[in-house]
User: Which sequence fits this backbone?
C-alpha cells in the first residue's frame, strides 16, 4: 500500500464513519419531514377540492349529510338492527330514532321486526333508497374517474398502492385506539366492581335521622 493510501486509510477512523452516517440520517430525516409536509398539504388541497363536489351531490339529493350517512350504513349492513346501525354511525337514543323516522317517512328505509325477537327492529333500504344511493355513487364515481384520467397509468397504480397502505395504517391506528379505549373501560368497570360504593345507610352516622324521617 502506498504511503499516501495508508495515511488516507488511517485518517478515516470509525468516528468518521459515525459522523458520515449521522449526516446521512439527518438528510434522510429532513427528506421525510419534507415529504410529510407535502403529503399533508396535498391531502388538505384534495379535500378542499372534493368537499364542494360532495356537498353539491348532497344538496341535490335533498337529504342532509347525516341522513345520507345513515342510508349508506343501512346499505352496507343490510338487515342490521337499529342499535347496530347506530353504533356504525356513532348515534343513539332519540337522535338515531329521529333520523330513522325522517328517512323512513321519505320512503327510503324499511323497518321490520326481528323474526326471533319482536323487540328488535331491522332496517333495510327500499327500492327508492337503493336507487338514490346508486345515482349518488354514479355521479361521485364520474367525478373520481375524471380526476384519475389525468394521471398516467403507472401513476394510478402507484397511487392505488400507496394510498391503500396509507389507509391501512390509519385503520390500524384506529383499531389500536379503540382497543385501548375498551381496555380502559374494562379496567374502570373492574375497579368499580372491586370497590363498590357503600350503601347510603352505611355513610350515615349512628343516630342520624334519615331525611324526611
Assistant:
Amino acid at each position: 500500500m502506498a504511503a499516501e493510501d495508508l495515511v488516507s486509510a488511517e485518517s478515516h477512523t470509525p468516528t468518521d464513519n459515525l459522523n458520515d452516517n449521522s449526516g446521512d440520517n439527518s438528510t434522510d430525516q429532513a427528506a421525510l419531514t419534507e415529504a410529510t409536509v407535502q403529503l399533508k398539504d396535498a391531502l388538505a388541497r384534495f379535500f378542499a377540492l372534493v368537499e364542494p363536489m360532495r356537498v353539491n351531490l348532497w344538496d341535490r339529493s335533498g337529504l342532509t349529510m347525516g341522513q345520507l350517512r345513515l342510508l349508506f350504513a343501512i346499505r352496507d349492513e343490510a338487515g342490521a338492527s337499529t342499535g347496530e346501525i347506530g353504533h356504525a354511525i356513532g348515534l343513539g337514543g332519540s337522535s338515531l330514532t329521529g333520523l330513522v323516522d325522517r328517512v323512513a317517512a321519505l320512503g327510503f328505509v324499511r323497518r321490520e321486526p326481528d323474526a326471533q325477537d319482536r323487540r328488535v327492529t331491522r332496517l333495510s333500504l327500499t327500492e327508492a333508497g337503493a336507487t338514490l344511493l346508486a345515482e349518488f355513487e354514479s355521479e361521485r364515481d364520474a367525478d373520481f374517474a375524471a380526476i384519475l384520467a389525468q394521471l398516467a397509468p403507472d401513476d394510478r397504480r402507484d397511487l392505488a398502492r400507496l394510498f391503500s397502505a396509507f389507509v391501512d395504517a390509519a385503520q390500524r391506528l384506529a383499531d389500536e385506539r379503540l382497543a385501548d379505549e375498551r381496555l380502559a373501560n374494562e379496567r374502570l368497570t373492574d375497579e368499580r366492581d372491586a370497590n363498590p360504593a357503600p350503601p347510603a345507610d352505611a355513610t350515615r352516622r349512628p343516630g342520624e335521622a334519615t331525611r324526611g324521617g
